[in-house]
Amino acid sequence: MNNLTQKQKDFFESLKELYASRALPSYDNIKKTLNYKSKNSIRQYIEALKKENLIVELESNLYINPSELGAKLVSSYVKAGFASIMDDKIEKRISMDELLNINSPSTFVFRVSGDSMCEVGILDGDYVIIKKTPEANFGDVVLAIVDDEFTLKTYKKDNKGVYLQPENKDYPIIRPKNSLSIFGVALGITRKIK
Q1: Domain range 107-190, its CATH number among 2.130.10.10, 2.10.109.10, 3.40.190.10, 3.40.50.720
Q2: Residue 170: what pLDDT?
């Protein structure tokens, strides 16, 4: 962030607010919501943020590195059973990277669209944390590029070769017609409670 101008930093803060409000930041959405007159200036800001590894761009949508989406970690546990008194001492500020025990600038948050992974608890509208890596183990939930399209599925292999397994019995498995590559591996999810 030290290499960014104040305007670029302000732009990034606005992007984070858009993302938090569940509005997926795209060029058109940014131009309309943040009242920018030109897509050219938006592009310049985005290029600067990409160089700092703060965002990644896929299919004209922007996804934010979760280390920039920090939250306060409270030292007490929250009981889901009987009510108890909670000590609300704030221990420290924690990022998603730290929470998931990773230490990598190549980790990004993507919004899930659809219900093809609902049987493993990944629901429409969830935010999935992806560590960018071209390698995955069979059984990992991955963000894959199959025949030039992105999809979130379980990475599997059988006697016919590698394939992508939806975690919803209503969807068929996906076998690549031409190509399949791994963009990254899912580390965790987060969702807003409505």
Answers
A1: 2.10.109.10
A2: 94
Q: What is the pLDDT of residue 190?
A: 82
Non-local (6+) Cβ contacts of 152 within 8 A are: 110, 112, 116, 117, 122, 128, 141, 142, 143, 144, 186
pLDDT block averages, 10 residues each, the chain of length 194:
81 77 68 78 84 76 67 48 50 59 69 91 88 91 90 94 94 93 89 74
153 catalytic per annotation: yes
Helix (H), strand (E) counts: the chain: 4, 10
- Predicted TM-score (pTM) of this structure: 0.60
Smallest CA-to-CA distance from 180 within 147, 140, 133 is with 147
| Catalytic-labelled residue, pool 67, 95, 131, 153 | 153
CATH architecture, domain defined by 6-64: Orthogonal Bundle (1.10)
Q: Give the strand order in the sheet containing 161-165.
A: 107-111, 127-132, 180-190, 141-146, 149-158, 161-165
Query: Cβ of 19: how many Cβ atoms within 10 Å?
Result: 20
Q: What is the pLDDT of residue 76?
A: 45
113 catalytic, yes or no?
no
Catalytic residue among 67, 95, 116, 131: 116
